[in-house]
Amino acid sequence: MTGTPRQRAREQTLADITRIGRDHLARDGAAALSLRAVARDLGVVSSAVYRYVASRDELLTLLVVTCYTELGDAVDAALADTDPDDPVARLRALGHAVRDWALAEPASYALLFGSPVPGYRAPAERTTGPGTRVVTALVRIIDEAHRSGKIVAPQQVPISDAVRADARRIREELDLTLPDGVLARGVLVWSALFGAVGFEVFGQYGVDTFADPRALFDHHLTVLAQTVGLVG
Amino acid sequence: MTGTPRQRAREQTLADITRIGRDHLARDGAAALSLRAVARDLGVVSSAVYRYVASRDELLTLLVVTCYTELGDAVDAALADTDPDDPVARLRALGHAVRDWALAEPASYALLFGSPVPGYRAPAERTTGPGTRVVTALVRIIDEAHRSGKIVAPQQVPISDAVRADARRIREELDLTLPDGVLARGVLVWSALFGAVGFEVFGQYGVDTFADPRALFDHHLTVLAQTVGLVG
DNA sequence: TCGATGGGGAGAGCGGTGCTCTCGCTTTGA
DNA sequence: TCAAAGCGAGAGCACCGCTCTCCCCATCGA
């Protein structure tokens, strides 16, 4: 209850627009998101919406931030329920949280991790923060496991100087202890995780190829934990 | 030079429409593909295009088939240049072929492996054939390696009965020799491969995170080859 | 208390979209 | 030769993003 009545009304309307946009996103997908349809549901003429949102792209940005935040919250909540000293369990919880959210909100997942919406470029200054929560959580799980000796050095593979330099920078920026090889494998685990989720959400497996996709994904998580050298 | 002049003209026009559609796809993305814009480039009024293509969705399907075929051809060409007895080299060639094609044709990659276009569902009877060429090639590489003893049994992880049943069916359908565990890991390698490519194409890594993405991808391929138990 | 300011909704309008329909012209094939 | 079929043009419908003007009225300073 802060600000003038007019300010509060404005915030309320903006929240309504975001909520209705979220509904339309879930129903029709990001590329079909229509400011005019949002205005109709809001009970207002289309030009009125432009008092609150500069353009369709800005509404998309609002939704991107909302979705990243929701996914990040879902992952954090899942991790809060796990044993802090069991990195494998935490990795599994993170993976299933991402998958569960993606299957519950496929259009939102598509907005964040699918094809870019034509003509729309998410502004980095507003989306990188909430957009990096999952990968940050993932890398922290691996790093904490490494600090407490729960990572066995994986089989050595050649790593180029460029990748080593990137790894060094990432290690410093995020204050990590992971050696280059584990960090590089962590990036693989990250993209593999979203690759598996994306295949399922986007229907790449086909309709009846796997009877229990969750079990398949769970298997993948086990293998990915091995890949990065995690032990119970 | 078969058929009546009218038939040949029709085929030519249809080919022109597909070509122009492909250009627009590369420039603006699938969701922005416009039949009217294609008609303009074709030098014809929009309704005339409907003599050749029933709807925008059918044009999308034409493009999906074209793109799958192109990707499949690219993979086949890359594999033709490798030693048939070196499964690791073949896996790497397949991976780089997919990545190279995806980076060269990001919008086409997005059409095939990104978010579904709103309101559009690819008809399975026309797209599953060309759409399964890559995964078929991948699984054949692994199976041939297994037949010639170039796969070491990976560390055992629990596999659910449902996944084992699916593995058995896939093994029979594709006439494979792979045990359940290797087949399941092959599926992981498949989705991980496209996950890594998708992250790069869709900009999930951020702009300056990795100076040499190809080197990172190459590292991933090495690890993925290990994951499935491939040895030199 | 009065009046200027400015927020905000309504409406018209522009150029774009997918798609349908009708109207003619032309090619085809019996 | 002549009906049938193919095909392009054009008008039209309902939708889209976005801009502009008009006008009401809540807000705020004098």
What's a quick, concise take on this entry?
Chain A has eleven helices and no strands. Chain A is mainly α.
Keywords, separated by commas or semicolons:
homodimer; 232 residues; mainly alpha; 11 helices; 0% strand; DNA-binding
The protein's oligomeric status is homodimer
- Shape by Cα distribution of chain A: elongated
Q: Please give the count of helices of chain A.
A: 11
Radius of gyration of chain A: 21 Å
Biggest sheet architecture of chain A: none
Q: First CA to last CA of chain A: what distance?
A: 49 Å
What fraction of the residues of chain A are assigned to beta strands by DSSP? under 5%
Number of strands of chain A: 0
Task: Describe what you observe in this structure.
Two copies of one chain form a homodimer. Chain A has 232 residues and is an all-alpha fold. Chain A contains eleven helices and no strands. The model of chain A has no long low-confidence stretch (mean pLDDT 95). Chain A binds a DNA duplex (30 and 30 nucleotides) through helix 1, helix 2 and helix 3. Chains A, B: This is TetR/AcrR family transcriptional regulator. Chains A, B: InterPro entries: Homeodomain-like_sf, HTH-type_TetR-like_transc_reg, HTH_TetR, MT1864/Rv1816-like_C, Tet_transcr_reg_TetR-rel_C_sf. Chains A, B: Keywords: DNA-binding, Transcription, Transcription regulation.
